[in-house]
Amino acid sequence: MALTDALLMTSLSDPGMVRDLNEDSIELRPESGIVVLADGMGGYNAGEVASGMATSMVADGMRDAWSADALQGLDRDAAIALSQSLLQQQVLAANAAIFEQAQKEASFEGMGTTLVGCVFYDNFLTVGHAGDSRLYRLRGSDFEQITKDHSLLQEQIDAGMISKEDAHLSNNRNFITRAIGVAAEEQAEIHTYEVEPEDLYLVCTDGLYGMVTDEEIHMTLMTLKANLDLAAEQLIASANDAGGTDNVSLVLVRVTKDFARAA
Amino acid sequence: MAKLILSFDGAMIKTVELNKDRTTIGRRPENDIQVDNLAVSGQHAVVTTVLNDSVIEDMHSTNGTMVNGKLVQKHLLQQGDIIEIGKHTIKYVVENTTAKPYQDFAKTMVIRKPDAAGMTAAVADVAPPAPARPAAPPPQAAVTREAGLQILSGSNAGRVLDLNKSLTTLGKAGHQVAVFTRRPVGFFVTHVEGDVFPLVNGEAIGTQARQLNDQDTIEIAGTKMSFFYKS
Predict the structure, then answer these.
(1) Three-state DSSP string of A181-193
(2) Residues of B with Cβ-Cβ distance to A245 under 8 angstroms
């Protein structure tokens, strides 16, 4: 069964109401169950270059490596282990390439990017991330943040300095503690989760959750999950109506049915 | 840089910059901010600062720590907060947060740290490590007027449905569903699912959101209704 029969995907990106440039990038490879989103940073167009390199390298690299040949003869646990190691390899390669580019060209100095990379296969989802772009899951009526930000604010929350409820009042919301392309070596944090039919996944940049509360995102997805394109447009409109001070990008993936690999 | 301004009876006594991880407040002389008053405990409160955030925590003082008139155990300080300790007040002031365009200071920065203590080490971006995004999302551009739907046909004819949520869906799941969205610029109706599109003033709206005007007539799943502004 083709993955595209079980996974409905849509994506949308908007520069927001204040910024001229859109430094976010999204790459989807639906036939391989791959979703990659990145939020770049750096002067001039460097952020766009970093996020663009990261998403295309990880999406294409993963698609090529994650082949029927590579999966031949592997049981489910082995496939999960392979998905994790291959995803990490793509992230390492993208990190090295962006870092090298930044060293070579003065205008790219210090560029980097967040990253969320997802691979759906055999009723599981492997996700790797770096920085403060997020993966959320709506399952039934439960809306949950799956990835944990690599950010100073998250560390302050973990340390008990700031409560989760007060997080939106913090002035440290733009400091991330991990990014791709900023240092010679950096890796993603990688986990694998079980996927169920009717799950709805949201991958997004901080331009969304920084402007729109989790409750509002939850309500929008619950209300509009029958129409992914409309849900995506509505979320972007909400972010822009709230000020739209950042680029806003998101991917929605709805699981329409079981996609267990044929035995 | 943020600072604390200690005053007594409206007279300023001292200003202390929050340039240390921990700034202590209390009656004993070893405190960074010494408040020499019997209502103040020896070790009364401590302010912990990490980059642009400062949190005040009461150190189990006898008479407690108030911020803006409320007793607090732990509180993330915001521009202009007034801390009351005994009869002294301490104002929290952040400098350089005046109206700059967002893009100047909303840049994401990476802080790389060998260990938790070295958090302020290196900043890998072009923007200065100044206060970041606005502390809260800016207020919405316009306040939406109140509006509702007067149901004109079907079993609910005569009823009024308030459009007081940001999203209100109407219709039958799997058959025809439309959503009314309330935005700062006004109200919109959009098709969500089904083969038949909502009608606005007798005309199918297609897949695009349609902004509603006062007294527009809408038909969804066979039910007619009229949109109206309440004022």
Answers:
(1) CCCCCCCCEEEEE
(2) 102-103, 106, 133-134, 137-138
